[in-house]
Task: structure prediction
Amino acid sequence: MILPATLDFLEKLRENNNREWFKQNKQLYEESHRNVYQFSAEIIKSLSQLDSTIPDQLDPKDCVMRIYRDIRFSKDKSPYKLNFGIGISAKGKNFDGPGYYLHIEPGKCFVGGGAWHPTTELLKSVRQEIDYNSSDWHEIIDSSDFKKTFNELSAEDKLQTAPKGYPSDHPDIEYLKLKSFIAARNLKDKEVMSTSAAAIVTETFEKLYPLIVFLRNANA
Result:
């Protein structure tokens, strides 16, 4: 589980997002980072039993994202992220296809996954898969488990018009307009701090798994 001290650290970082404060409180960061590593290891072990492509010995350091922001091309020069991000796939956080994601941030925790901003080739393949296998697609996204857990797919960066090669009256045009295929469920702070936190996250990943498989098959 995520310790209260970890969320407390992130709260304090939100109020003191500068290098001087971070340096003075490096121990708090290291303790929080260690907690996130331990929680990630627990999630990885459980997820590997559900998804055989995830190695049970996958190193958490390959999944937990850096807290340091890349500010080279950003107007926001705040040096640190206000969250701990955990990306899980066969390659850890460095995946360009379907994967799982857990976001730890006070008041903004969520769990989900899918294919976020896939390559042009994968995006084309997923659209083709939806077009060719509409029944399989709807069996997943219209299922009661999926609806109850995620409600619907994110419409982030959705196209305004039909993508090239598809008519505007295509029965699945709203899905074909998507540029990412991701679903997420918000988590309360008390959920990630509970003793059942790993079970909650793993259960959510289980509901997401059919979508992950569909997206993988599109790229097979």
Observations:
- The first strand starts at residue 84 and ends at 88.
